[in-house]
Design brief:
The protein is of the alpha/beta class. The protein has helices spanning about 40-45, 50-60, 105-110, 115-125, 155-175, 205-220, 235-240, 255-260, 280-285, 310-330, 370-380; strands spanning about 5, 10-15, 20-30, 30-35, 70-75, 130-135, 180-185, 225-230, 265-270, 290-295, 300, 335-340, 340, 355, 360, 370, 390-395, 400-405, 410-415, 425-430, 430-440, 440-450.
Length: about 450
């Protein structure tokens, strides 16, 4: 389904190619591509034989390897993909509180998460980490539960939760793991998570938290950048329907947050792919051109009974345009899929998605399968390193495409051919044009010029 990325060899001079790349029309800088190391992913990877684990992580993250992933997202506490019961780093019996965080402990993460991340960091020292909480500790919430509810609207709650998040970043730094980006709440408009941690965090409350968090990070000497929102391109009608009476559904949550006083502490906005489309990124960019945009989550999935081949084809077909090409054409500086690794049953998971797929599948027998997300990310991560710039590309409406200029001046064009036929096409920048034939239903990466990859 996905064609191999290739360096173009047949080059002609001059003329008007079918897909024209304007190498001088530079847009956003690219940070990288990657996936989430959830606690489920970490456990599966940690349980592998050391040599097998090292080989897989080298394959995925080595800067000169076949994939070259350079970004990771991790949960702060449990998400829906955890092999254990839900947890935070300061859980207490009902009715107890810990305003001074005397019981704060990241011990749960020392079992698998931190060792796996340390191994990845040793392979790829420049890997960037995004951290996202699913829930504050239950004693900091209105309903006393990790599922649903809001952060208490009290000054001491904002101060304590800000200190909790900073403490997490500091503890990770002591383990040799720098957190580059922090989102303050995963999916803040999902008020009723299905059996897993989650928190309703309206715009005004996110702003209050960030007003504490931003100065706190600065005073602690931490360079972690705050990202707002961390939810879908558009408000899902199901989430809008749960808006409390007399409250604003916040259809423009990302922009509304960037209009608050907290904006001075916000580096950019994180998006998920599960509703709407990436055009919303450009709309936000027009209003706030100085803020960066990242796509931090998108999972492939199937229907019970689907064959592995069907899940692969359907996932790649949808993600090629909707997760990779369109978000990058709409100013995304990074694209991350969801779980890096899951088992053959789409787990371990606690509630939530029952048919999600990982970049790789690690079966209970130890067999490793590479999924559509692997193919998708490889087409970008291997050829578009950190520091590349997106440049404009035009032409051939039947094909979806996005172009880049890497730090060595190499031009990289990613093209999706959704048609059922092979598609001969000439691509180029007007001076150097390349004749290629794109296989039917394929994702292709073409590069020319500059130095060698």
């Amino acid at each position: 389904m996905a064609s191999l990325a290739t360096e173009a060899r047949e080059i002609t001079d001059g003329g008007n190619p079918d897909i024209f790349v304007d190498v001088d029309a530079k847009s956003q800088e690219i940070y990288g591509f990657g996936a989430a190391v959830t606690h489920s992913s970490a456990q599966l990877i940690s349980a592998m034989a050391p040599t097998t684990r090292a080989s897989l992580l080298e394959e995925l993250f080595a800067p000169d390897g076949p994939m070259r992933l350079s970004m990771i997202r991790i949960p702060i506490g449990a998400s829906d993909f955890t092999p254990t019961d839900a947890f935070t780093f300061d859980d207490l019996p009902a009715g107890e509180t810990d305003w001074d965080l005397e019981h704060f402990d990241i011990g749960t993460d020392r079992a698998a998460m931190i060792p796996v991340l340390q191994e990845i960091s040793a392979i790829s020292p420049r890997v960037r980490i995004i951290a996202s909480p699913w829930s504050p500790p239950a004693w900091l919430k209105t309903n006393g539960s990790l599922e649903g509810g809001r952060l208490l609207d009290e000054d001491r709650a904002y101060e304590t939760y800000s200190a909790y998040l900073i403490r997490f970043i500091e503890e990770y730094a002591r383990a040799g793991l720098d957190i580059d980006f922090l989102t303050v709440q995963n999916e803040p408009q999902l008020r009723n998570p299905d059996g897993y941690p989650g928190t309703d965090m309206p715009v005004w409350q996110a702003a209050k938290l960030i007003e504490k968090l931003g100065p706190g990070l600065a005073q602690s000497g931490l360079r972690t950048a705050i990202l707002g929102f961390d939810h879908n391109w558009e408000l899902n009608p199901a989430d809008a329907a749960t808006t409390p009476p007399s409250e604003d559904p916040a259809y423009e949550y990302p922009a509304d947050l960037l209009r608050t006083d907290a904006a001075r502490w916000i580096a950019g906005t994180a998006f998920h792919c599960y509703y709407g489309n990436a055009d919303r990124q450009s709309q936000l960019r027009e209003q706030f051109p100085e803020k960066t945009i990242l796509v931090t989550e998108c999972s492939g999935s199937g229907t019970h009974g689907d064959s592995q081949e069907k899940v692969f084809v359907d996932t790649l077909s949808w993600q090629a345009t909707n997760l990779l090409i369109n978000p990058l054409r709409n100013h995304a500086s990074a694209v991350l899929t969801w779980n890096l690794a899951l088992d053959e049953f789409g787990g371990p998971h606690r509630g939530g998605c029952e048919t999600c797929s990982g970049v790789v599948t690690i079966s209970t027998s130890g067999e490793i399968s590479r999924n559509a997300e692997y193919a998708l990310l490889g087409h970008a991560a291997r050829f578009v390193p950190s520091g590349s710039r997106r440049v404009d590309s035009f032409g051939t409406e039947e094909l979806s495409h996005v172009a880049f200029r890497d730090p060595n001046g190499v031009i990289v064009l990613i093209v999706w051919n959704p048609t059922s036929s092979d598609y001969p096409v000439q691509v180029g920048d007007g001076q150097h044009n390349v004749n290629v034939e794109l296989p039917a239903g394929s994702l292709s990466t073409i590069s020319w010029g500059g130095g060698e990859h």
